[in-house]
Design brief:
This protein is an all-alpha fold. The protein is built from six helices and no strands. Helix 1 packs antiparallel against helix 2 and helix 2 packs parallel to helix 6. The longest helix is centred in the first third of the chain and has 42 residues. The relative contact order is 0.17.
């Protein structure tokens, strides 16, 4: 069982890193779309009807999907002053408490987002803008996907905590 859990943690770390690094391409695409809009608007006095909505969708996608990467790297917001004030043993226990609270909070958030995402899929909500894209539907579903990725990565981190191998992910950091 321990081998299976360790394998799960390694695979999940790899998935989180792959998705997180892939999200950097979404941010570059957002920059390109925004630059294109600036050129079109101020250079040719011909603004687009789609660039703002696309840029927001690209940034939101990168933000939501990269959460597993951030958690895998332990780069989320934390209060490092507490780490300096307590012993390593106490800090390790506080890390577990933090992860368990996060699991509970993200699980509840996932449950809360599930029905709106399903309803949005059933009636295919659109933005109501000139482009009238399916951005609301896409983002509601994407939030659920992001929460699930977050939960899976938290599970991998808890496994590493139990096996006392935190910080020993698939890439060796």
């Amino acid at each position: 069982m321990n081998r299976f859990l360790a394998r799960y943690a390694n695979v999940m770390d790899g998935i989180s890193v792959f998705i997180g690094q892939g999200c950097s391409m979404l941010l570059f695409a957002c920059i390109a779309v925004s630059a294109f809009e600036v050129v079109m608007r101020y250079g040719f006095d011909s603004p687009t009807v789609w660039s703002t909505e696309l840029a927001m969708t690209l940034c939101a996608s990168a933000w939501v999907l990269s959460v597993g990467y951030v958690v895998e790297r332990n780069r989320h917001i934390s209060i490092t002053m507490i780490q300096m004030l307590v012993s390593p043993k106490v800090w390790r226990l506080l890390r577990l408490i933090q992860m368990l609270i996060a699991v509970g909070a993200i699980f509840i958030l996932t449950l809360a987002l599930w029905d709106p995402a399903i309803k949005a899929l059933q009636r295919m909500e659109t933005s109501g803008t000139a482009l009238n894209s399916i951005q609301p539907t896409y983002l509601k579903v994407l939030l659920v996907v992001g929460c699930i990725l977050y939960l899976f990565q938290l599970a991998a981190n808890v496994i590493r905590w139990v096996h006392n191998t935190e910080g020993a992910s698939a890439d060796g950091h």
